[in-house]
Design a protein that fits this description.
Belongs to the CN hydrolase family. Apolipoprotein N-acyltransferase subfamily. This is Apolipoprotein N-acyltransferase. The protein has about 400 residues and is an alpha/beta fold. The protein has twelve helices and eleven strands. The longest helix has about 30 residues. The radius of gyration is 23 Å and the shape is globular. The protein starts with a helix and ends with a strand.
Length: about 400
Amino acid sequence: MFLVKRANFNKKFIIKGLITGILLSAFIYLSYFNIEYRFINTVLGLLGLYFLLTIPRPSVFFAGFTTGVLWCYWMTVSLEYYDLVYLTPILLILIGLVYGLIFLIFAIFDKTSIRLILIFTFTFIAPFGFNWMKFELIFIDSYLGTSKEDFALILLSLFLMIKLHRMKILSILPLLFAINIQNGLYIDNPNAKIAMPQMNIKQNLKWEKDYRNTIFEKNLFEINKAIENKKDLVILPETAYPTLLNKDEVLLKQLKDKSYKIDIITGSLFLEDNQYYNATYHISNGIVKIAKKVVLVPFGEEIPFPKFLVNIINDIFYNGAQDYAKASEATDFEIKGQKFRNAICYEATTDKIFENLNDVKYMIATSNNAWFTPSIEPTLQKLLLKYYSKKYDITIFHVVNGSENFIFRP
């Protein structure tokens, strides 16, 4: 009888954590299925945070485990391209454990006020340099704001709801100041007429030598099409040219010749001083400008561990490949008299790439999402770019291989 009661007790902990994790993740999956109702996202987000503040301590671990897996399972999709599919269940469990333990820290002291403070503190932390789990993002398509101040007001409102035994209506007051009903109707278009071709090159073909000419011909077709349509700029996605473009004189000359008719922005690799960079090339009137990536993808482009561990991991899992090198600051391109901040994939969803914007009002972000499709990764990335567009009041032109292109406006 005792064992039965204990099993039921443990099951309740798991169920409460599971429900909390689902509520905290619901907005991503609703967006994935193009279900974006502000009222639903507002209610589900508030319920998720309310439960996170009130469920028992053991349930918090299961909430973190569930949330981590639901937000980040897509990381396992890329393992097939490294012949590491067998690691999928191990990676899923590790993701769940990492976020389970992080969430458990929220409940290290059994006081709602401390849990609230630790949850808010987490919004400033990026475990292992990976910052895609943002609690503020829960309300990106809701009636509530997504700033730190808004999130603090939301937590305060929930805290008052929990603690006030009488006059619970007062708990709504902080929430009123967090309301954001801006419709985003203002559109500020740049001077340049921009072509954003939709690319869908599968990842298993992208780096095949026998397929490269097909990719190059596809890129050239899109450039010529943009010229025929009298565009000023054509943007191709991250690593649209799967080669060291600065070392391919024939290919680079072809693009330089085209650049007298149209500005070209394309992703490719760049080699300098025996270091490899993930880079963007801006080619205009025969002149090439290189923008090297500033923020690398943790565990994808760099291993965020001490050097001796980096070498061991690269030897075991990446056949001895070295981490990419990175630039120290962001690069701006000037097109038709206006500046565009360059961002490559992951870095477009980090605060660092938005430093020193000054008078820059536009960003060109390029990605290769073929690594992670089909999954929710493109959806989560889309929501994050929407968040950063609002946060920094900047229009983002996102050109992608493997998922849909978007323009995000503040």
